[in-house]
Amino acid sequence: MDRRGRIRRLVAVPVTTRRPGPGRAEHDGEALFRSVRAALHRLLRGIDPAGIAAVGLACQRSTFLFWDPESGRPLTPALSWQDRRGEEICLALSRHEKMIRSRTGLRLSPHYAASKIRWLLDDSPGLRRKAERGEARGGTLDAYLLYRLTGGDSWSTDPTHAARTLLMDLGRTDWDPELLDLFRIPFRALPPIRPGAFPSGEVRVRGTSLRIAATVGDQQAALIGLGCRKPGEAAVNYGTGAFVILNTGAKPRRVPGLLTSVAWSSERDVRYLLEGTVNAAGSAVQWIERLAGRRVRSSGRIASPDRLPVVVPAFSGLGAPHWISGARAVIAGLDVSTGPEELLEGTMAGIACRVAEILATMRRGGLRPRRIVAGGGLAGRSGLLPLQAALMGRGIERSLVTEGSCRGAAVLAGHSSGDWDLETDRRLEFPADPVAPGVPAAEARRLALRFRSARTFVASPVGPG
Questions:
Q1: How far is the C-alpha of 262 from the C-alpha of 171, rounded, in Å?
Q2: Domain-embedded: residue 56
Q3: How many domains does the chain have?
Q4: Distance between alpha carbon 425 and the CA centroid of its chain, in Å?
Q5: Is residue 392 part of a domain?
Q6: Per-residue pLDDT at 303
Q7: CA 184, 190, 196, 201: dihedral to nearest 10 degrees?
């Protein structure tokens, strides 16, 4: 990315998600590291590394693993944020839900890292003893990748990642001893927390040391990368899940059914956000394409929602504002003419209905975003945004940035290295196109009613929330 915030080169290296059983999702930590290293080397082909001012790193926030401090090799799989194998642990601690929410700003949920950490410590022979002795190191992906990229010189995390463990006190932005005791997690196994916009190590590329100047959670990075730098601006990032994030500035805000967390941080200040999550968006589309055995393309415009099947995309539970971790997906309104294309459009409509529910929850809490910018892989598919605008009853903007999270990490790195001020610098460009409602208001209301009716058929809660 150049100094005006324009992406000059983009490289992607895919990583496989393993699903060893129902509710389980994990990655090979070694493959994750190799993919990031390969992407970095490919990105810099034909470019003098000495001309790179800074590097930023954005990661999935709740994915967690343990590794050997000597070799850096993983000791466990990297349990994905989508993994729910810690559900029973959360259920056993459900009486502490109110205290946990007060301290962390989050719900007690197996999607966050604490129950995953506890599960790994209990399930992996000898791991707890190693962690207590400092012979195993743990962390979310930022801490792991920093450790590997810097050859073991750096082991730290930032508040946007630490907050997603359910172990950080949001007010102090530090590990909470009572929460560590509650989940039976040794303090020694966790990395120190330092600001996100802060030098965190160097990575060697072709004989040159590149400074890693910032780390940030992927959704917070998308908030920055899509240009929502000021309080009252919201981003909707349609990725593996869909995330609605409102920038609330220097003041944390709490609304029932939504999450409060850190947007970004530096040595001088902390910025906060309000968030709602849809646990399955892109992953729901991938499910349809696995069933069809091919990439599914719709007509390109969701022209008549009245004729679509209604899909409640609760493939990994039902997130904000309902928080039913044991919910299962529902498809209603099938007939003999329903094919993969119609199922895809119905799924897109279901995702749009879920996002609209989250924005309605924000409004009920007294927070109405003055600007909403959409990005992510699904934002340009199947007429999603015109339908989204119709369900919201207002316009939305489609970001012209292809990878908001990557761009946000680079913007934060530039802020950290003094190249610009993240919130006020006018040199940074954030191009976006306006999108007007593409469906009559009456049809949008009927779709919302059909969706709410279908949602009543999700499974009763299994676990807290």
A1: 10
A2: yes
A3: 1
A4: 26
A5: no
A6: 57
A7: -170
DSSP state of 263: E
Q: pLDDT-based confidence at 462, cuts 50/70/90?
A: very low
CB 188 within 8 A of CB 131: yes
Cβ neighbourhood burial of 331 (10 Å; 0-12, 13-18, 19+) = middle
User: For tokens 């699904």, what's the residue?
Assistant: 378
Kindly state the tokens that stand for 32.
Answer: 């994750």
Q: Measure the CA–CA gap between 351 and 344, rounded to whole angstroms.
A: 11
What letter represents residue 422's amino acid? L
* Structure tokens belonging to residue 4: 């005006």
Q: Are strands 78-79 and 137-140 parallel, antiparallel or unpaired?
A: unpaired
Question: Which of 359, 251, 317, 325 has its CA nearest to residue 97?
Answer: 325
User: What Cα–Cα distance (Å) separates residue 102 from each residue in 37, 107, 179, 219, 255?
Assistant: 38, 9, 12, 22, 12
% the chain with pLDDT above 70 = 97
Instruction: Provide the residue range defining the domain that includes 129.
Output: 26-214
Domain membership of residue 192 (yes or no) is: yes
- Residue 38 tokens read as 């390969």
The pTM score is 0.91
Distance, in Å, from the CA atom of 257 to the CA atom of 362, rounded to the nearest integer, reads 9
The residue-averaged pLDDT of 440-447 equals: 94
Q: For residue 139, count other CB atoms closer than 10 A to its CB.
A: 26
Which stretch of DSSP H or E encloses residue 59?
A: strand 55-59
pLDDT of residue 464: 39
* Residue that the structure tokens 């995953």 belong to: 116
Cα–Cα nearest to 414, from 181, 119, 203, 216: 216
Model confidence pLDDT, tens digit, residues 347-368: 999 999 999 999 999 999 999 9
Neighbours of 135 (CB within 10 A): 16
Question: How many angstroms separate the CA atoms of 36 and 52, rounded?
Answer: 17
> Distance between CA atoms of 93 and 179, rounded to whole angstroms?
11
* pLDDT of res. 459: 56
pLDDT exceeds cutoff 50 at 141: yes
- For residue 307, name the pLDDT band (cuts at 50, 70, 90): confident
Query: Residue 199's domain is classified under what CATH number?
Result: 3.30.420.40
d(CA 359, CA 367): 9
Using the structure block, give the residue that is written with the tokens 């993240």. 422
The answer to whether residues 115 and 122 touch, using CB atoms and an 8 Å cutoff, is: no
